[in-house]
Amino acid sequence: MTIQKVMTASCTAVLAMTLAGCAVPGMKGKEVLSTDRTYPAIGPYSQMIGHGKLIWFSGVIALNREGTALQGTTTEEQTRATLENIKLQLHSQGLDFVDVISATVYMKDLNDFAAMNRVYAEYFKQAPPVRSTVEVARIPRDAKIEIAIVAARR
User: Fold this and answer.
1) Residue 50: which of 30, 22, 20 has the closest Cα?
2) DSSP state for residue 70 in the 8-state scheme
3) Is the pLDDT of residue 26 over 80?
4) Which sign does the torsion angle of CA 134, 52, 92, 65 carry?
């Protein structure tokens, strides 16, 4: 067997194992979850998707409960409002910040990283999740920050 065939077989096996644990559209066991404790989805997506012990949360921004206006003008204010929305979504599923295993933070300006990080640390006090933070050109509703998480049910 050539190296290329071995690599192809290995990649195929890894992809199959990865998909077996993910919420793939149409996959048996996929749960569409939502809450009215925060703003409704502002597009054709689900607020949350559960599969097994994992829940994927769509990106959350600092919108008010009605979804009509951003809360706060500074990065600190919007980070706090975003994390408060996430807290409400977590609580709707019987979870808290300690149950979050992964977070992706999208920021309009990475020069505000320290300001975001100070507020973020207030919410993730113990066993913080893995995290990626990236600067993006634009966030829906011209927000300064968006956070998407994955949490594990107990």
Assistant:
1) 30
2) B
3) no
4) positive
